[in-house]
Amino acid sequence: MSPKQGMDEILRAQDWSGLRKRLVAVARSARMPHSRAVELADIVIVDCCDPQGRPWDPTREPDLARHALRLLGNLVSAERRKDRVRRDPRNVAASSELGSSSATPAQILDAAERRAFDERVIEAARARLSGEIDERVLDLSLDGIDKAAQQAARLAVPIEEIRRARDRVKYALRAAIDEEESLCLSAAGPPKKS
Amino acid sequence: MSKRSRSPEEVLDALDDSDVADEVDRVRAMSSADVDRELAASGEDAGTIGAGASEVFERAVRRRTEVLAGRPKREPQRKSVRVWIGASAMAASIGLVAVAASNPALLGLRSRAWDTAAKARAVAERARTLRERASEACEKRLIVECEAALDEARALDPGGERSDEVRALRQRIGAAAGAHSNAPGADP
Predict the structure, then answer these.
(1) How many angstroms separate the CA atoms of A90 and A127, rounded?
(2) In the list A32, A176, B120, B187, which could disulfide-bond A37, CB 3.0-4.6 Å?
(3) Residue B4 in domain
(4) Shared-domain flag, residues B157 and B84
C-alpha cells in the first residue's frame, strides 16, 4: 500500500460527523452566525485533507480533533481581526504607518493623538465597569496577562467569576471604542462628497 | 496612570484569542452527547450538522486527489491577485501619508490624508472580497452573481479589472452567456 493510500484510509476512518459538530459548536460559541460557523467548519475539514492547506499529519499530531479545532481557533481569531479592521481600517493603518524609526513631526503628532485616543477609551471603559474584579481583570489584560486561568490565579478568584468579568470588560471596551470613534467622527464633521 | 504598551484593540484581540483557545479545549473535552446538547442550546440541529459531514469530506477527498495528481491549482492564483491588490492599496496609502507628512505646510491636511488612506484601504479590501465572492460564484456556476460581484468590485477599484483572474472570470461569464443564447429555446 502506498503512503497516499495509507493516509486516505486513515482519513476515511475518522469521525468527521462528530468533528463537524465540535467545530460548529466552537464557532457558534465564538458568536459566529450559523451560516458562517458551518462554513468555517467545512473550510477546516477541507484544509485537514488538502496537502496544500493545513493537512493533518497523524505522526505529528495523533489527535485529528485537536489539530482541526486549533485551525478553527486561528480562523475565528483572524475573522474577528478582519472584521475589526473592516469597521475601522485606521487602527491597523496607523500602527503600521507610524512604526517607522524616522518619524516626521506629523507622524509623531498622529502617534500622540492615537495614544490619547487609547487612553480615553481605557478610561471610558473603566468608568463602565462596576466591580473591583472587573477593573483588575482590565489591568491584568493591559499588562499582557490575558489568559483566564492566569488571571484567576493572580486574583485568587474562581475561574467562572473571571470569565464573567472578562465578558464585561470586553463589552465595556467595545462600547468605549465605539463611543470614542463616534465622538471623533462628529468632531470631524460629515464626510465631504467628491 | 501607569504606562502601558497595549492599545484597547490589542487587549480585545488578546482576550478574544485566549477565550477561543479555552473554548477549543472545553469543546474538545466534551462527550458527544454534551456537544449535541450544546448545539441544541444555540439553536442548531446536531443531526443535520453531523449528516452534512460526509458530503464535505468527499469534497475534501476530491480536492486532495486533484492536488496529489498535480492538477492546476486555483488557490495560488487567487493569492497572487490578493497580493497585487493589497500591494496597490498599501502603496497608495503610504504615498498619501508620506506626501502629507513630508511637507510642514501640509500638516493641516494630515488628518484628511490619514482618512483618505484608510478609506482607500477599506475600498481595496471591499473590492478584494467582492472579487473573491465572484470567483466562488463562478466556481459554482452562479454566473449572474459572479458578474454582479465583479461589476460592483469594478466600480470600487477599476484598476483591479485588469488582473488575470478578473479577465478569466469575465471570459467565463461571456462563454456562459454565449452558451445560453445558443441553447435551444433561448431568447434571441
Answers:
(1) 25
(2) A32
(3) no
(4) yes
Q: How many domains does chain B have?
A: 2
**B110 phi-psi bin (left φ>0, alpha ψ -120 to 50, beta other):** alpha
Domain of A72 in residue numbering reads as 3-86
In angstroms, the separation between the Cα of residue A183 and the nearest Cα of chain B is 15
Chain B residue nearest residue A64, CA to CA: B28
> Same structural domain for residues B47 and B79?
no
Residues 69-128 of A with CB under 8 A from B: 69-70, 72-73, 76-77, 80-81, 84-86, 89-91, 93-95, 97, 104-107, 109-110, 114, 118-119, 121-122, 125
Which pLDDT score is estimated for A182?
82
Integer angstrom CA distances of residue B61 from A10, A14, A55, A61, B81: 12, 13, 12, 20, 26
The residue ranking higher by pLDDT, B36 or A81, is B36
**What whole-number distance in Å separates Cα of residue A142 and Cα of residue A163?**
16
| CA pair distance B99, A188, nearest whole angstrom | 21
Domain termination site, one of B30, B46, B68? B68
User: What's the pLDDT tens digit per position in A33-56?
Assistant: 999 999 999 999 999 999 988 999
- Interface size A-B, in CB pairs within 8 Å, comes to 202
Query: Is A79 found in the same domain as A8?
Result: yes
pLDDT band at B178 (very low <50, low <70, confident <90, very high): low
Strands (E) located in B15-114 = none
Q: Looking at the structure, do residues A77 and A133 belong to the same domain, yes or no?
A: no
Q: Give residue B85's Cα distance to chain centre.
A: 12
Model pTM?
0.59
Asked if residue B113 is part of any domain, the answer here is: yes
As for the ipTM of the complex, it is 0.78
Considering the domain architecture, whether residues B168 and B121 belong to the same structural domain is answered as yes
**Which domain, by its residues, includes B127?**
75-182
Name the residue with higher pLDDT: B156 or B109.
Answer: B156
Q: CB within 8 A of A28, min separation 6: which ones?
A: A34, A37, B39, B42, B44
DSSP summary character for residue B183: S
What local confidence, expressed as pLDDT, does residue B110 receive?
52
Q: What is the pLDDT of residue B129?
A: 80
Q: Is residue B187 part of a domain?
A: no
Distance from CA of A151 to the nearest CA of B (A): 11
